[in-house]
Amino acid sequence: MNQVIFEKRYILLIVLFIVSILSSSYTAYYAQSDSWQAGVARVDITPKDSLWMGGYASRDHTAEGTLHKLWSKALAVVDKNGNRGVIVTNDILGFPKDISDNIKERCKKEYQLEKPQIILSSSHTHSGPAVRNNLDLVYPLSEDHIKDIENYSIELENRIVDLIGKALENLISVQLFSDNGVARFQINRRNNNARTLSVQTDLNGPNDYAVPVLEVRKMNEELYTTLFGYACHPTVLNSYKWSGDYPGFAQLALEEKYSEATAMFFQGCGADQNPLPRRSVSLAKQYGQELAAAVERIIEDESDPISAELKTGYTEVEIFFSSPPKIETLEELAADTTLYSYQQKWVKQMLSKIKDGEQIPKSYPYPIQIWKLGSQTIIALGGEVVIDYAIKLKRIFGNDIFVMGYCNDVMGYIPTTRVLREGGYESRQAQMVYGLPSTWKADIEVRILQSVIDLAKKIGIEILEPQLFSN
Fold first, then answer.
1. N- to C-terminal Cα separation, the chain
2. Checking DSSP bridges between strand 363-373 and strand 310-320, what pairing results, if any?
């Protein structure tokens, strides 16, 4: 009898031990996969007063109204080890270096966040407000306009710093998911004529139709935030009303569909990509709905959660200018009455600097940032980046990566060797728009791609094809 009782107890202990092991494994698995925390916050950045709009040289007066509100939105994430990161998306043309640096320096003091931990993304809408030190030569600004832009820029800095703090305060337990959808309204503007588009049967590239999507879900699987991107200029609209253009309509559509979730848009490498046809509100809504539908498809599909591990990296690589024009050439240009207004301003500015003995910069500190969220790589590049960079980076790191442009510092167009060789606005005229001293040297592509590879190696990202610089 005692032997039977002993055997039963022994078997029970074994069963309890096995259950305990299985339970521990189960708990460990979900502790690892579900231990993300995330917080989201948003702030209305629509100018209260009439302000000069950013993006077009053709505008001749300030904004006249609002089509829909402009927003800055912040997503803060914390991994299982307490590593933090914040992505801020903004309905503006772009951040100049001084505003970006000010925001990051203040966040270092107030929230102990370093540069690699903050991505400042701009949608590049051409229906948002102008900010200081960004395309100043393009606009016919009065002293009052300049003062208003400066005041708005200071207010924008303050709001974004506060916004980041609120996102960090709103942390809840979440799961992260990622995937890429598809939308096909981007058209390479260098290789297709907008005027003859209606009769074209074939469109010329290169293009990248990916719609990268990061889903943030509460533990009950309810959608909390969706961060998504697309590589295409937000230039459907050119009116005098504030709007986020097609990305604004995409976010509105997603927030109507998922009423408890925040939708956030980031711009890809869309410097040479336009939404065509364009120039009507109905088209902006159409493209927004197409983009929202691509995101919705990803949200509705099932996918595996991303493990709760965050690694961040940041670097600045010197990219070099070609030799600035000689004073004789500038003086000849100054007498040319056929130049556009911004070209005339650029010539006068360069002449003034050279005659005053001012040192003309030979290079620019170009920002590169990488996040690794579990197995998901996000590469954030500064400037107006042409689509070739996204295509080549996907060959180097895999098609599933997210490539963001217009991040942290929008200092000018960033062409590849091919685009420099072919010429055109993105390689030869755009430097005047941004007040740069000259075009970029031909090694710009190699320097940027190699710097991305070097930074990726430091944070443990696999390199598939490291040498892809030839065209």
1. 85
2. antiparallel
CB burial string 334-347: b at 16+ within 10 A, e below: eeeeeeeebbbbbb
Question: CB-based burial of residue 313 (10 Å sphere; 0-12 exposed, 13-18 middle, 19+ buried)?
Answer: buried
Scan for tokens 């509460």, then name that residue.
218
Q: Decide if 92 contacts 14 (C-beta within 8 A).
A: no
The length of the chain, given as a count of residues: 471
Alpha-carbon distances of 155 from 72, 99, 347, 402, rounded to whole Å: 12, 11, 32, 30
Helices 97-111 and 143-169 cross at an angle (nearest 10°) of 30
Residues 17 and 60: beta-carbon distance below 8 Å: no
186: three-class secondary structure by DSSP: strand
**CB-side exposure of 430: number of CA atoms within 13 Å?**
22
CA–CA dist 392, 275 (Å, integer): 22
Residue type at 36 in one-letter notation: W
Find the radius of gyration of the CA atoms of the chain: 25
How far apart are the C-alpha atoms of 164 and 40, rounded to whole Å? 9
What percent helix, strand, coil does the chain show, rounded to 5?
40, 25, 40
Q: Which residues pair with 312 in a beta bridge?
A: 371
Query: Residue 357: helix, strand or coil by DSSP?
Result: coil
User: How does pLDDT run across 17-62, given as a tens digit for each residue?
Assistant: 443 443 343 334 334 445 899 999 999 999 998 999 999 999 999 9
Q: How far is CA 238 from CA 75, 114, 194, 406, in A?
A: 30, 37, 16, 20
Phi, psi of 47 (to 5 degrees): -60, 135
Phi and psi dihedrals of 195, rounded to 5?
-70, -30
Angle between helices 245-257 and 281-300 in degrees, nearest 10: 50
Cβ atoms within 10 Å, residue 20: 10
Pull the structure tokens for residue 378. 């996000």
3-state class of 298 per DSSP?
helix
Q: Among positive and negative, which fits the CA dihedral 463, 464, 466, 471?
A: negative
Query: Do the Cβ atoms of 376 and 178 come closer than 8 Å?
Result: yes
Kindly report whether the peptide bond that precedes residue 466 is cis, defined as omega within 30 degrees of 0. no
Is 318 strand, coil or helix? Answer: strand
142-184 per-position pLDDT tens digit: 999 999 999 999 999 999 999 999 999 999 999 999 999 999 9
Tally of CB atoms within 10 A around 131: 28
Q: What is the pTM of this model?
A: 0.91
Is-contact 176 79, C-beta < 8 A? no
